[in-house]
């Protein structure tokens, strides 16, 4: 997702799942990769810091088509 944060476009990743086990596996993988993350709510993990999204892009590759925040 591309967000417009104070006039600056920035990439953000969100992962949603209702299973704490799946979220735990995902966040453990992020920790092993040194990627900073936060829980946005009970079911959602967000990656939004510049260095963290760049590292995630290195690992999985950048999205070729990101959605603007208002379309999500």
Overview of this protein structure:
With 72 residues, this protein is α+β, with helices and mostly antiparallel strands. The protein has one domain. It is 35% helix and 28% strand. It has a three-stranded antiparallel beta sheet, with no helix packed on it. A two-stranded antiparallel sheet has the order 1-2. A hairpin with a 2-residue loop joins strand 4 (38-41) and strand 5 (44-47).
Radius of gyration: 12 Å
Distance between the amino and carboxyl termini: 8 Å
The count of β-strands is: 5
Total domains: 1
Mean pLDDT: 83
Taken in chain order, the helices and strands follow as EEEHEEH
Strand content: 25-35%
Tally of helical runs? 2
Spatial arrangement of strands, main beta sheet: 3-5-4
Structural class: alpha+beta
- The outline comes out as globular
Largest sheet descriptor: 3 strands, antiparallel
The low-pLDDT segments are none
Q: Which helices and strands appear, and what pairs or packs with what?
A:
Blueprint: E1 2-5, E2 8-11, E3 13-16, H1 20-33, E4 38-41, E5 44-47, H2 50-60
Antiparallel strand pairs: 1-2, 3-5, 4-5
Which short descriptors sum up this protein?
single chain; 72 residues; 35% helix
Please outline what is shown here.
With 72 residues, this protein is of the alpha+beta class. Helices cover 35% and strands 28% of the residues.
């Amino acid at each position: 997702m591309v967000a417009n944060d104070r006039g600056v476009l920035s990439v953000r990743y969100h992962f949603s799942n209702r299973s704490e086990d799946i979220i735990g596996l995902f966040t453990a993988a992020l920790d092993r990769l040194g990627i900073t993350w936060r829980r946005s709510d009970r079911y959602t993990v967000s990656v939004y810091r510049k260095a963290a999204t760049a590292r995630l892009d290195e690992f999985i590759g950048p999205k070729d088509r990101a959605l603007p925040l208002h379309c999500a």
